[in-house]
Design goal:
With about 500 residues, the protein is an alpha/beta fold. The chain contains 19 helices and 17 strands. The protein folds into three domains: about 60 residues, no CATH class; about 70 residues, no CATH class; about 300 residues, no CATH class. A hairpin with an 8-residue loop joins strand 6 and strand 7. The chain starts with a strand and ends in a 5-residue tail after the last strand. The relative contact order is 0.10.
């Protein structure tokens, strides 16, 4: 019997086919089974090069053999929709109960030895049938995933049109401004870019296809959100980021948006009192437009179907959108840290925003211990972003001597530590960091994994820790958001 590896199981590493084959060689397996995504592209020259590489390494290659794809029954709609969109509407699927988290080996074995909750047949009978029955004509046929995207929709009345938008899952179920032709044209007038120009592409998860979209489609969603035309360059820059505000992670993440530069004043954004709340037209509608364009231009965001966040996330309503208080900050603005000029207008995006730690000021005697405790409240999978009222930012300068944001970042890296045994007991760390440690893909996680169980190790990579200043100085409140900085995009490029 030959031992092989299904490369789909290591897809999260983002390896090229050649890197994946080298990994198989190091594991000393005989066969590498390629799924569609593992090839990266399908031109003849590339495929021949992959085959030659495998031969040089003494490996066999398999592709497209019958597979019993096993999933839990909570994902029926999502799995079937994904299979359909990939041109495999008749893919053989086997189902076991949900959940698998927290179950003992005996309980999981009972799943496998039990009954498929969808077909009501024994699970193992379904697996054997999927692997041994000849492929049917339907299964071997070629299918294209077609999507209809009409430019205009009509209804008998305004109320019927609103209902249509809700029934199609095009809204966040708050009232919308109907995107009439006149309103969309007014939005488009706020940019020099042509309506049919492609802005970017987006997808809700790494295993879904990218959808591309043009300026006009972004304008439609900006109108729906209630945004004014002068806000549109910011919304276009968010769309150009390609970072979805409706990511379909089961852990229910949201995004955060921070705007820097002159445009903050031009469009009346709030960076003072109430900046993170529902008290400013620009903050509220830009963040909402980002969410709406994400769910509509990436192929949908429907719970149980294309969105699988177990609890959902209230931050998703406006994507925690605000401007940085550059004027009252003792440090340089965030976008300058990222290499932009101070007079440039820039929007920055964070993804995976889940956890939050919240407090007031810095303690007189034990501020270091206090901040350490707050950092420990953030899941190690999600890097911390300090969101500080200017009062607190200046306290970090006067009390701690942090003359630059980088000083605070250095301190947090050095003092946000855990015993290695605790670090590797976090579920998200096991899910995402452990594979990268075991296969040597990331030196930081390799170092973490080599530590003794009682050795204190950094919770976060230094370059993942961020600092932003916002607030009206009515008090020195501040918080730490757990989430990963993703990207900064020039707003000026979209004027």
């Amino acid at each position: 019997m030959k031992l092989g590896l299904d490369l789909y199981s290591v897809r999260s590493q983002g390896w090229s086919p050649f890197e994946a084959l080298d990994y198989c060689r190091r594991l000393e397996v005989n066969v590498a089974h390629f799924g569609t995504s593992a090839f990266s592209r399908f031109d003849k020259e590339h495929l021949l090069a992959v085959r030659a590489c495998a031969a040089d390494l003494g490996l066999e290659i398999e592709y497209g053999i019958p597979t019993a794809s096993v999933h839990t029954d909570a994902f029926v709609d999502a799995v079937e929709q994904t299979a359909y969109s990939r041109g495999m509407p008749f893919q053989r699927l086997v189902w076991v109960p949900q959940p698998v988290m927290g179950k003992t080996p005996d309980e999981l074995r009972a799943y496998v030895e039990g009954v498929d909750p969808v077909t009501d047949r024994p699970v193992m009978d379904e697996v054997i049938a999927a692997l041994t029955q000849p492929l049917t004509e339907e299964e071997t046929g070629a299918y294209d995933f077609g999507r209809a995207t009409p430019r205009y929709v009509e209804a008998e009345s305004e109320e019927a049109l609103r209902r249509l938008f809700m029934d199609k899952h095009w809204t966040d179920y708050l009232p919308i401004v109907l995107p009439t032709e006149e309103r969309v044209e007014a939005m488009l007038a706020a940019t020099s870019h042509k309506p049919d120009e492609i802005v970017g592409r987006m997808r809700p998860t790494g295993n879904r296809e990218f959808w591309s979209y043009n300026v006009e489609k972004v304008a439609v969603n900006a109108v729906m959100a209630g945004a004014r035309p002068e806000f549109f360059p910011v919304i276009l820059a968010l769309a150009a980021s390609g970072v979805s505000a409706r990511g379909s992670t089961t852990s229910s993440a949201a995004n955060m948006v921070v705007v820097n530069g002159p445009i903050r004043r031009e469009i009346g954004m709030n960076w003072g009192t109430g900046a993170l709340g529902p008290y400013n037209e620009a903050n509220a509608t830009i963040g909402r437009a980002y969410g709406l364009l994400s769910q509509n231009l990436q192929g949908g965001s429907v719970p149980g179907h294309t969105y699988l966040g177990s609890m959902g996330n209230n931050y998703a309503y406006n994507s925690v959108c605000f401007a940085e208080n550059e004027e009252r900050s003792p440090w340089e603005p965030f976008h300058v840290q990222k290499g932009y000029a101070k007079d440039e207008s820039v929007v920055s995006v964070w993804s995976g925003v889940r956890s939050t730690a919240f407090t007031l000021g810095l303690r007189e005697k034990h501020w270091q211990q206090h901040v350490q405790h707050l950092l420990r409240g953030i899941d190690p999978h999600s890097a911390p972003t300090f969101v500080l009222d200017p009062i607190t930012a200046r306290l970090f300068v006067s009390k701690a001597g942090f003359r630059k944001k980088e000083d605070l970042i250095d301190w947090a890296y050095e003092h946000a530590t855990l015993p290695a045994s605790e670090y590797w007991d976090y579920q998200l760390v096991v899910n995402y960091h452990l594979p990268r440690a075991l296969n040597g893909a990331d030196p930081f996680y390799v170092m973490q994994h080599q530590a003794a169980p009682d050795e204190y190790i950094p919770m976060f990579k230094k370059d993942s820790i961020q600092v932003v200043v916002v607030g009206g100085e009515t008090n020195g409140y501040w918080r730490i958001f757990g989430g990963s900085y993703a990207k900064s995009v020039s707003i000026d490029d979209w004027r």
